[in-house]
Write a structure and sequence with these properties.
Elements: E1 2-4, H1 7-16, H2 20-27, E2 34-38, E3 41-44, H3 58-77, E4 80-82, E5 90-93, E6 96-99, E7 105-107, H4 117-134, H5 136-143, H6 151-167
Length: 168
């Protein structure tokens, strides 16, 4: 799998590949194997089977979220951040999640909030909160959408499920 980088992404890649966290994540398989085959052109390891977050059970979505948050935490320590918070950046090698979008890492700019926070909430956090309470049928309708579950939808569904559980 090949990926061409923009000039800015090429600069971020050059800085990223030398960080401790990135080398460690490559070694332990949390990030897909990646090599630069010519300036601005990356080759990624092929993932044997592609699946989508709306197909995953609760446990897989939770593991993908934990992988992404763990990588974000380590990246921050080395001066990098993820520019998004999408479960579509995670695939699976058997039962192990692997982060496949190395282009999502960019250098941290002081004072800027995490741009991927809202996306992480709509595509990871709200679906995870709603699955055990509102049931998979109710929350799955929005999960197939690239935008996920909007905050107003999550609030309404959590309010309904909270009222139902307080009556029992």
């Amino acid at each position: 799998m090949l990926r061409e980088l923009s000039p800015r992404a090429q600069q971020d890649w050059a800085a990223l590949e030398s960080t401790r966290f990135f080398r460690r994540a490559l070694e332990d398989g949390r990030i897909v194997a990646t090599e630069e085959i010519s300036p601005g052109l990356l080759r990624h390891e092929r993932v044997p089977f592609v699946s989508y977050p709306y197909e995953w059970p609760f446990e897989m979505l939770r593991e993908a979220a934990l992988l992404q948050l763990g990588l974000l935490d380590e990246a921050l320590a080395d001066g990098f951040v993820l520019k998004d918070g999408s479960p579509y950046n995670v695939q699976w090698r058997g039962s192990e999640p692997v982060f496949v979008d190395v282009g999502s890492f960019e250098r941290l700019r002081d004072g800027e909030p995490w741009a991927g926070y809202r996306q992480f909430c709509t595509l990871f956090l709200y679906p995870l909160l709603l699955r055990p309470t509102a049931g998979s049928r109710r929350s799955r309708g929005s999960e197939g959408s690239l935008e996920g579950i909007e905050p107003s939808q999550a609030r309404a569904l959590l309010r309904v499920s909270g009222a139902a559980s307080s009556r029992t």
